[in-house]
Every structure is written in C-alpha cells, then in structure tokens.
C-alpha cells in the first residue's frame, strides 16, 4: 500500500521537478474563507470534560532521548489531585502506575489550575499503550503508540505545524492534520497566542490546551517555543520569560545533556531532531551554543540518517514579515548546518509557507562582498510553516521578485508532513487547508544528505540517479 502510494507520488513529484526546473514559484492562490478571529470561549471545540476536577488539556511528548518514554501532562482545574498515570498494553487493564509532579503559577491576576507532568518510561517500541488519568467519574482514558526502535531504515511520518493559535483557521489546520497519517508533530513555536489578550489572559492557554487535546493526548508533539511564549511583562510585574510555557509544556532536555528545557534533542525512528530556541541566547560561548556544538557531534547518521533542526524565526525568508529576524542565528549556526549536512530546517513565525533550495551564505562576512546565498549541495532545505492559522492573519507580502534561493511560497494556511521511507528517501508535502479537500500543494522527495551524497550516492541503483540529476539541476538555479 505504502509502496504503491510512493510510486504514484514519485511520478507526480518527477513531473513537478521537471516543471520546477525552469522557474521558482510564488503561488497565486488567494484565500478568502474564515476571518482570523479566535473561536469563542464557549465553542464546542473548547468544551471541558465531564466530571468534577476532571483532567483536561492532556498532552504527551517524548520523554527520553530514544523514544521509549513519554511525558504525560494535564491540568486539574479546581483542586490539587494525584499526578498518577495508570497504563498498560491492554485496554481496561491499567495495571502499571507512574508518579509525576504537580505545579501551578500565577500571571498577574490569572491563577492557573494544577498542572501535572508524569514520566512514563521503560516502554517497548512499536507498541500501543492505553492510559488513564483522574479518578472515579472524572477518570479519562487515552492511548498512544510508541515509535519503532532507532534504526537506519525505520520509516516514520512526522507532521509539522507552526503558529497555530485558536481561530477557525487553526481548527481547519488541526482537522486536516488529524487526517494526514502523521504519527508525531514537530511544533515550531507560537502555541496559544494568549499573550494577545489583556494581561496575557491565561484562560486562553487553557482553551488552547483543550482545543489541541484531540491530537496531543494521543501522539507526542515535540515542542518548541516562539516569541508569543516569551510573555515578558514587567509592566504587570511579570519579569521572568516563558513562564506559562515552561509550567505547561515539558521537554526531555536532560536526556540530551541540555541545561534548559528551551533547547534539546530527541531521536525518533530514523530521525535526530534538534530543537533550538530563537529567543534564548545563542551566540558563541552561550549555553545553547555550547550545547549545540556538542549535540551535533553526537549525531550518528549510521543510526539516525535524518538530521532535522527546528527553530521559530526562519533563517531564510523572503516575506516582508519578520524579514531577516533569523539572520543572527544564521550567522551563529549556518556553518555547522552545512558542515554536518543537516537535511531539513523547519521554522515558523512568518504566517505563510515557503521552501528554499539547498543554498548557503557561509562565505559571507562583514569584510567580504559575497553576500548572496549560493547553491550548496551540503546545505539544508529551509522550510517555513508558520501558517497554522492564528489570529494575526496571513503574511501576504512577499518580496518581489522572488529571490533565487526561494523555491516555492504561498500565503495561505496549512501544515506539512514528512514521511521518512528509509535511509535515502523521504516524501515531503505541504498541505493547504483547502476547505474539506486534501490538497498537497507542495510535494518533494528529499534524498538524505548523508546517505544519498558523494561516494554513497554511487552505490544507489541507476533508477535513483534520475532523481538525483534532476535535483542537481534544480539546485544549480
Ligand atoms: C498553588 O496552589 C496552592 C494550593 O491550592 C496555593 O496555596 C498556592 O498559592 C498556589 N501557588 C501559586 C503560585 O499559584
Ligand atoms: C571573509 O570572507 C572572505 C570570502 O569568503 C574570505 O576569503 C575571508 O577569509 C573571510 N575573512 C575572515 C576573517 O574569515
Ligand atoms: C528507499 O526507498 C526508495 C523508495 O521506495 C527505494 O527506491 C530505495 O531503493 C530505498 N533505499 C534503500 C537504501 O532501501
Ligand atoms: Fe512568531
């Protein structure tokens, strides 16, 4: 089934490549549906579960380095409750138990509910687990599937979502994603947009948690923060940064030797995923810089061939919105991305979709004139997926003409999926929210930067060389 689908898609992609050879593309699609307004608090999509103090806003994320653990988080709104998870491989059995911790916080005049985080570890790969939280009439039951073991050819499908918010467009994005076959989400920052409300009203963090629960309770979302998570409000007496985000969303940062939940790495199936914080210090000698230097050395492409980086502010963006905001991180890290042959860099922040060719600008410095990005086979592809659908609306002003480094761009809402087939091939698509229909608007087969290059490339069968030469042609443009 998967093989057949791949063959059909390959043909389609091949045709796209042929068409794509001659031109970069700025889509002319214009979205007219749904205004960018948040769904009302009494919307059915924010409904609270039945029962007194019932667990709500349930979300899970990877709990270790290699995918044999999850962190299960939830909120009990009315009073403290045990942070216990009962779970098992069989439905209705729940004979295993894990203990977590509870926290709460205030933000100006908002008081949070009781936020629980519970690590469930020692799990088996490729296994469905059922879990139960809460007690009596208020108990709730969910399930999740663990990933395959870390393996060079493990296939796995990620969704990529950014800047989601809680509008009717956000709902459309989430509903499309739920039908995509994605097994885990790489989230590129800007979650609830609660900071758009007076006093950063935490009630909108709660409604967002209930809204996304239909996905987050059943599959891990790999979290990253954006500027809307900073919530630095000295005028309200709130002088720490990322306060609600850090209380509500856990990350397994210690497992990757990070000193902060804001930046970390996980390995899942055949992917090594590095999460970077755009709004934490990252210049030379800072903790994030030192950590990334070490983490890139730990990447083992013989075990996890796919090297993926997530950040919020894109390094390459040809939209007027947030133009060059990722430039400082580019100056700090781009050399490493090229040196370590990163496959893909996903970002959000700009409320539109854009994909680059493999380009780099690492020869530029302040005393040399080579300031234009050039085709670079070792460079990642940069993809901006800040088009989740939040209340700020679309970023529709692209720079004109489209720069050479930009392959495809469109100002409308959607999400992406990345299906890792094996060590050499991945099928990537960006899916526009096209009102009930599934429309993969941007399709690319990516060849692994480590396994499909140089000497390894020669070992590939002849039929694959066809794709390679086409891609090579494209990257020359
Ligand atoms: C946390 O909850 C406890 C128990 O209800 C309460 O006494 C305390 O003030 C709360 N702390 C914060 C920071 O809201
Ligand atoms: C600046 O860039 C030029 C051109 O790439 C290079 O020759 C030169 O060595 C660079 N200068 C420094 C100090 O790295
Ligand atoms: C990976 O999958 C592709 C597409 O099915 C196939 O053509 C290729 O031979 C596979 N590569 C390896 C190394 O198995
Ligand atoms: Fe943002």
Automatic annotation (TrEMBL):
Catalyzed chemical reaction(s): a phosphate monoester + H2O = an alcohol + phosphate
Record keywords: Glycoprotein, Hydrolase, Iron, Metal-binding, Signal, Zinc
Biological process, per Gene Ontology: phosphate ion homeostasis
SUPFAM superfamilies: Metallo-dependent phosphatases, Purple acid phosphatase, N-terminal domain
Pfam families (alphabetical): Metallophos (PF00149), Metallophos_C (PF14008), Pur_ac_phosph_N (PF16656)
Molecular function GO labels: acid phosphatase activity; metal ion binding
Recorded family membership: Belongs to the metallophosphoesterase superfamily. Purple acid phosphatase family.
Protein name per Swiss-Prot or TrEMBL: Purple acid phosphatase
Organism: Triticum aestivum (Wheat)
Gene expressing this chain: LOC123149541
């Amino acid at each position: 089934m998967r093989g057949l689908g791949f063959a059909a898609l390959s043909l389609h992609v091949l045709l796209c490549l042929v068409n794509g050879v001659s031109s970069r593309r700025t889509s002319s699609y214009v979205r007219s549906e749904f205004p960018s307004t948040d769904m009302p608090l009494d919307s059915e999509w924010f409904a609270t579960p039945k029962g007194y103090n019932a667990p709500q806003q349930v979300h899970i994320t990877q709990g270790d380095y290699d995918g044999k653990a999850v962190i299960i988080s939830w909120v009990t709104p009315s009073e403290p409750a045990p942070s216990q998870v009962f779970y098992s491989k069989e439905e209705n059995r729940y004979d295993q138990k894990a203990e977590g911790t509870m926290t709460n916080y205030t933000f100006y005049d908002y008081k949070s509910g009781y936020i629980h985080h519970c690590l469930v570890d020692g799990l088996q790969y490729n296994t469905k687990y059922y879990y139960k939280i809460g007690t009596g009439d208020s108990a709730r039951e969910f399930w999740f599937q663990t990933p395959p073991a870390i393996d060079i050819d493990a296939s796995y499908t990620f969704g990529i979502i950014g800047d989601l918010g809680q509008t009717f467009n956000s709902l459309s994005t989430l509903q499309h994603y739920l039908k995509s076959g994605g097994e885990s989400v790489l989230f590129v920052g800007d979650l609830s947009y609660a900071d758009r409300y007076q006093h950063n009203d935490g009630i909108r963090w709660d409604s967002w948690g209930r809204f996304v629960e239909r996905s987050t309770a059943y599959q891990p979302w790999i979290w990253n923060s954006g500027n809307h998570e900073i919530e630095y409000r000295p005028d309200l007496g709130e002088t720490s940064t990322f306060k609600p985000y850090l209380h509500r969303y856990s990350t397994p940062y210690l497992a990757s030797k990070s000193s902060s939940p804001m930046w970390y790495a996980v390995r899942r199936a055949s992917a090594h995923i590095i999460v970077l914080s755009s709004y934490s210090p990252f210049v030379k000698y800072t903790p994030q810089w030192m950590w990334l230097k070490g983490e890139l050395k730990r990447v083992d492409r013989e075990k996890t061939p796919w090297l993926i980086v997530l950040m919020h502010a894109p390094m390459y963006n040809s939209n007027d919105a947030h133009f060059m905001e990722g430039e400082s991180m580019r100056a700090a890290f781009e050399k490493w991305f090229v040196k370590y042959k990163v496959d893909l860099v996903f970002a959000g922040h700009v409320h539109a979709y854009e994909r680059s060719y493999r380009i780099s600008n690492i020869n530029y410095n302040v005393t040399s004139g080579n300031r234009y990005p050039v085709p670079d086979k070792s460079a990642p592809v940069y993809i901006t997926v800040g088009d989740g659908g939040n209340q700020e609306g679309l970023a529709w002003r692209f720079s004109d003409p489209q720069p050479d480094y930009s392959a495809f761009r469109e100002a409308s809402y959607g999400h992406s999926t990345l299906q890792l087939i094996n060590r050499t091939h991945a099928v990537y698509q960006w899916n526009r929210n096209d009102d009930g229909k599934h429309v993969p608007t941007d399709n690319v087969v990516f060849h692994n930067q480590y396994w499909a290059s140089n000497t390894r490339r020669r070992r590939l069968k002849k039929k694959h060389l066809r794709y390679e030469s086409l891609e090579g042609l494209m990257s020359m443009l």
